[in-house]
Amino acid sequence: xxxxxxxxxxxxxxxxxxxxxxxxxxxxxxxxxxxxxxxxxxxxxxxxxxxxxxxxxxxxxxxxxxxxxxxxxxxxxxxxxxxxxxxxxxxxxxxxxxxxxxxx
Length: 104
Hints:
Blueprint: H1 4-30, H2 37-81, H3 83-102
């Protein structure tokens, strides 16, 4: 299973990719009234690429969502099977974070 950091990077990439797609769609709409054979050709190519990118983005988003749900399920099972160990781990992480914040 991939690490949470890797999943977070994918999530960031998906968000950035969505912004790029939105900008590309805005650009295509802005140039819709512009005439010319070359521009029409470029717009057509861009629209095809944009549709492919949207499909791949949806697939990547579904994959990240599925892996996140699987990680949450595994964590839930672990916490239910080892409640005291989980409480101790959470307390230890809290102490370490408290010490790091207190050093400032």
